[in-house]
């Protein structure tokens, strides 16, 4: 009966978290709510973070709850090995991984495992969040104690990650749309400045921005920002 009550409380907490995720005002706030929820809801979890692997080697740490997460991510990036790299390089992507004891699991990651243990990582779980082009994202949960995560912990983490993946994708799409609107507005403002200062048409002003972007190898958004800040192009 106690187990049933525990899972009922977990389900209520998960439902509350799901509502909170959809109410966040920014991508950053959404990610922070995800990693904070991992510590609150998953037994044995001391720290959490979202790792994004761009291409084959570049690592980005998002919403880490403490420095241990960032150090672990950077260690994988520096060594080019670790559980997240394995998941990213698997043909279809390993959805869940659990490392019970970093003091013993040294065969798969002979460099990463002992150094992660020195950082203070005892055990770890990771859950695939999304794949987009060549990017890979995972929600990673850490414990300072070996053997801290059980099958129940893995199930709880998987349920959390399932909700997190939907919220993460939605927040990313919303952020991208807002960024696109802001970019169009900035480019329009920059075109207006150039049209007014050089007596050009809209097409001619846009062509000026485009040529400058190509010649200087600078993104069009950045060219527009320079025009808006400086009142023109030098």
TrEMBL record:
It holds the Pfam family ANTAR. Signal peptide: none annotated. Residues 167-228 form the ANTAR domain. InterPro entries: ANTAR, CheY-like_superfamily, GAF, GAF-like_dom_sf, GAF_ANTAR, WH-like_DNA-bd_sf. It comes from the Bacteria. Keywords: Kinase, Transcription, Transcription regulation, Transferase. One of its GO terms (molecular function) is kinase activity. PROSITE patterns: ANTAR. The keyword Aminoacyl-tRNA synthetase does not apply. Coiled coil: none annotated. This is ANTAR domain-containing protein. It comes from Streptomyces zinciresistens K42.
């Amino acid at each position: 009966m106690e187990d049933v009550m525990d899972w009922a409380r977990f389900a209520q907490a998960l439902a509350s978290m799901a509502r909170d995720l959809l109410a966040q005002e920014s991508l950053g706030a959404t990610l922070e709510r995800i990693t904070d929820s991992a510590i609150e809801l998953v037994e044995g979890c001391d720290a959490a973070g979202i790792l994004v692997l761009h291409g084959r080697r570049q690592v980005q740490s998002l919403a880490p709850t403490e420095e241990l997460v960032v150090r672990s991510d950077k260690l994988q990036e520096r060594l080019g090995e670790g559980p997240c790299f394995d998941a990213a390089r698997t043909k279809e992507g390993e959805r869940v991984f659990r490392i019970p004891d970093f003091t013993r699991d040294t065969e798969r990651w002979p460099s990463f495992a002992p150094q992660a243990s020195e950082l203070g990582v005892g055990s770890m779980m990771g859950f695939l969040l999304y794949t987009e082009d060549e990017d890979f994202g995972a929600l990673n949960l850490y414990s300072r104690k070996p053997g801290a995560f059980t099958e129940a912990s893995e199930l709880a983490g998987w349920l959390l990650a399932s909700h997190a993946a939907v919220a993460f994708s939605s927040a990313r799409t919303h952020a991208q749309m807002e960024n696109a609107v802001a970019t169009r507005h900035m480019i329009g403002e920059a075109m207006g400045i150039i049209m007014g200062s050089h007596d050009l048409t809209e097409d001619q002003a846009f062509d000026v921005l485009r040529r400058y972007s190509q010649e200087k190898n600078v993104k069009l958004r950045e060219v527009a920002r320079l025009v808006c800040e400086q009142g023109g192009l030098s």
